[in-house]
Amino acid sequence: MNLRAPVTLLDVAQRAGVSVATASRVLNGGDRVPRPELQERVRAAADALGYTPNAQAQALAKSSTNVVGILVHDIEDPYFAAIANGVMRAADERNLLVMLASTFRDAEREIAYLASLRAQRARAAVMIGSRRTDAESLARTASEVGSFLNSGAGLALVSQSGMPAHTIEPDNRAGAAELARSLAGLGWRKFGILGGPEALATARDRRDGFLAGLADSGLEPVAVEYGDFTRDGGYAAAEELLDRGADVDCLFAVNDVMAVGAMSALRARGIDVPGRLGVAGFDDIATLRDVWPGLTTVRLPLEQMGRRALELAIEGGEPSVETFKAEVVLRESTARA
C-alpha cells in the first residue's frame, strides 16, 4: 500500500520559490508580513499541494492560540458548572475553543493545569474555585499565575481573591448576613450551621457573615458542624449534629449542595421540613428547581459571573476586582406556620 507522505511547509516554500520562514509567516501568521505577491504565491502553492497549517506552529508564530482554559474545583458541583457554562457561552460567542479541567480541589493539580495551558500558549484562562487559606499553596499558585500572565495570556479568577489577576468576587459575607437577619425576622431562633472545610475561604466567609447577621439580631448559633463542601458532606454534618442532640430549629448550610444533603438526612429520619426544622443554603443552583420543599437560599448570578470572568481575561490590563451582589430568596423550607 503506497501512502502519500504529508505535505510539509518546506514543500510549499519550494513550490512557491520562497524561504521556509516566508512561507511560515504567510500561513502561520507573525509580526512581519511578506509582500502581497509573495503571499499570493505561497497560498497558491499551499492550495495546489493541499497543505494544512500546523496549529502549534501557528501558536508559536502568533504567541497564542484561540484556546481558553477553564479550571474548576469540581465540575459535578452545580455551582461550578453554572459559572463554567457562562464562561463557555462567552467563549463561543468569540469563536474561542474551550479546554475544561477539574482540579478536585487539589492545589498542585491546579498549578500543573495552569502551567500546561501556558506551555500550550493558551490565549486566556479562567480559574473557578474557593481561595485557600494555606499560605504555602497560595504562594505557589500566585507564582504560576504570575508566570502565566508574563507569557502574554489573559487570566481571571472567580472566588479566589488575593492573586495578581482579574478577580470576580461574590459578596458571600453580606449575602449570608442578610440571610441570617431574614431568618431571624421569620421567627427562627436556634440555629445550627453546617460549615464547609475551614481551609476554604468561601466557606469561612459565608459562616462568618451568617454569624454577623445573627449577632445583629441578638442571636448566637447553637452549634456549628463542619463537613465537605458536597451533598454527602452536608448529609454527614447534619447527621452528626442530630446525633449530638443539638437543640436547633433551623439549619444553615454554607452552600446549596450541603443543604440538599442535609434535607435528605432529615427526610431519612422522618424529620419534617419546615415543620420541625427549617433549612437554608447558599448559591441558588439550578438543581433546586427539583427540590421540595423549595430551599431558601442566597442567589448569585452564577452564569453572569462566568461571562464577566471571560471578558476580563480576554481584555487583560491591570488586575481588577469586581464584586457581584447576593440576593436572599425565601422559599418553603423556612416558612413558618
TrEMBL record:
**Every HTH lacI-type domain range:** 7-62
Q: Which domain of life is it from?
A: Bacteria
Q: What is this protein called?
A: LacI family transcriptional regulator
**Species this chain originates from:** Kribbella antibiotica
- Keyword tags: DNA-binding, Transcription, Transcription regulation
- Name the InterPro entries for this protein: HTH_LacI, Lambda_DNA-bd_dom_sf, Peripla_BP/Lac1_sug-bd_dom, Peripla_BP_I
Q: Which GO terms describe its molecular function?
A: DNA-binding transcription factor activity; transcription cis-regulatory region binding
One family name in Pfam for this protein: Peripla_BP_1
